[in-house]
Specification:
The protein is of the alpha+beta class. Helix content is 39%, strand content 13%. Residues 257-258, 267 line the site of magnesium ion (MG).
Length: 491
């Protein structure tokens, strides 16, 4: 969009191809809108994806659009229907209960991107919910989408965050917010499960054909398109799980309705990044059994893929559906070893498994911060031990670290690297969205109305591998009060 001043939201051209599937798949639903909306943040980086000029945030009509009060003429807002396994149990009908697809843009270089409201009010799928989201959860999703993107992890993006004095009742009374998220698509495993469990094979096939046509066109001419589709979703999910594990991300609610068929991180609720390395970390205090604990995620994703395979089996045949997932464990393991090897400054090879595992045990045993350890490891000096003080000092039991370092040093010696430090810094983030940083931002934005904290965090999170010397404190260990924070699904 060349002329910044002339462009208005009304000129945004949107299509709604999903509506072509017919009314078994969605319900046309207008957003409820928000009284006295206030634009808390506009993400110009995500705006680039859909060709919106930076200056558009200042146009008075823009906040009316971003809050759902006024739609561009081409918008056709729909709530889609899906189902899903929640905490292991099948729920026959869910759906976009507080989300709405606004439409799909087609940008010359960025391609097609779908825009979706979250928190825009009730839909036919809201069940007993109010269709709303609160500022707290919306800001968390906004920040984490961008943090994951900055870390190079596939995710939905966040375009805008608007709040309003409208009261919303959760554990106490809070106020409403609406975000717009952007992704190539928002189709979930649960969309397929719905039609499988309803034995609606025609609709199931139409949905699979839609996903192939719009997101995996290269499979359209394959001899078994639905099987290769499943294989590719499985492969992308394996890679995504490896990325989550390598960075220390816990999603918190890995129900099949929160799993993207595009392999994106989707639906940020009670997510959490590891502070100290704790494999059994459960970020969602409603998850009493620890089903979605940090170290369970790869297996849970495998189980979720089995539910998707079952749902697609009328199209693929049962044997092919099962076989399509066969490579999942190997693909996960190899992606994880590759990522972890790079984090340790080593070439990707199976031989590194033992030093990776012994490192994780070392960190767990000594309760060491995962991100800080790896960032300091970038400066590890194989030759002069006195240069490793900052790293060793993380440990009370320094001898424990020294034992591991001996093995690590031996591996490094076998694999010389011209600039290991720089390479390691490009894969070991200095800044992650620690829970306390998100909580701090919520307090500052909500209580003080100061949104510059969002700018500061996004500066760091969009470039988490850089040093940012003036914002050093954001890389610190969490303060003591952060240990008490707990999160639930209620948002
Ligand atoms: P989640 O656990 O956030 O993935 O949500 C599970 C299901 O509940 C989805 O169908 C959501 O659309 C729906 N849902 C969650 N919160 C609300 C709400 N406040 N109002 C209506 N539906 C909701
Ligand atoms: Mg969800």
């Amino acid at each position: 969009m060349s002329d910044n001043n002339a462009f208005t939201i009304d000129q945004l051209i949107l299509e709604q191809p999903f509506a072509g599937l017919g009314e078994d798949f969605f319900t046309l639903t207008p957003p409820e809108g928000l009284p006295s909306p206030r634009l808390l943040h506009f993400n110009t980086r995500a705006a680039d994806l859909i060709g919106l000029p930076d200056g558009i945030a200042n146009h008075p009509d823009t906040v009316e659009f971003l809050s759902g009060n006024r739609l561009p003429a081409t918008a056709r807002p729909i709530a889609t229907i899906y189902a899903g396994h929640q905490f292991g149990y099948y729920v026959p009908q869910l759906g976009d209960g507080r989300a709405l697809s606004i439409g799909v843009t087609n940008h010359a270089t960025q391609g097609k991107q779908e825009l979706q409201f979250k928190g825009s009010g009730r839909t036919p799928f809201s069940r007993s919910g109010d269709g709303r989201a609160v500022v707290r959860s919306s800001l968390r999703e906004y920040l984490c989408s961008e943090a994951m993107h900055g870390l190079g992890i596939p995710t939905t993006r966040a375009l805008s965050l608007v709040d309003s004095p409208l009261p919303v009742f959760r554990e106490g009374t809070e106020t409403a917010a609406v975000i717009i998220r952007i992704a190539p698509g928002f189709i979930r495993f649960g969309h397929f499960e719905l039609f499988y469990h309803r034995k609606q094979t025609n609709q199931l096939r139409a949905l699979a054909d839609y996903v192939i046509a719009h997101h995996y066109p290269e499979f359209a001419s394959a001899s078994a398109p639905y099987t290769v589709l499943l294989q590719e979703i499985s492969r992308r999910t394996a890679v995504l799980m490896a990325q989550w594990q390598a960075v220390g991300f816990t999603h918190g609610v890995m129900n099949t309705d929160n799993m993207s068929v595009l392999g994106l991180t989707l639906d940020y609720g009670p997510f959490g990044f590891l502070d100290r390395y704790e494999p059994g970390f459960v970020c969602n205090h409603s998850d009493e059994m620890g089903r979605y604990a940090f170290d369970q995620q790869p297996d849970i994703a495998g189980w979720n893929l089995s539910r998707l395979a079952q749902a697609l089996s009328p199209l693929t045949g049962e044997a092919d559906a099962r076989d399509a997932l066969q490579d999942y464990p190997r693909q996960f393991a190899s992606a994880y070893i590759n990522l972890m090897s790079a984090k340790l400054g080593l070439p990707a090879q199976k031989e590194n498994v033992s030093v990776i595992l012994s490192m994780l045990e070392l960190l767990h045993r000594n309760q060491i911060d995962y991100t800080i350890f790896l960032r300091r490891l970038c400066d590890f000096d194989s030759d002069t031990d006195s240069n490793n003080a900052a790293l060793r000092d993380l440990f009370i039991n320094r001898a424990d670290f020294d034992t591991w370092a001996t093995d690590y040093r031996a591996l490094l010696a076998r694999h010389p690297h011209p600039d290991r430090r720089t390479a390691m810094r490009q894969v070991n983030p200095k800044f992650i969205l620690r829970n306390y940083l998100a909580e701090n931002a919520i307090r500052i934005v909500r209580d003080e109305g100061d949104t510059t904290e969002i700018d500061r965090l996004l500066t760091l999170l969009h470039h988490p591998f850089d040093e940012h010397p003036t914002l050093e404190r954001y890389a610190d260990l969490p303060p003591d009060w952060a240990q008490e924070l707990s999160l639930s699904c209620s948002s």
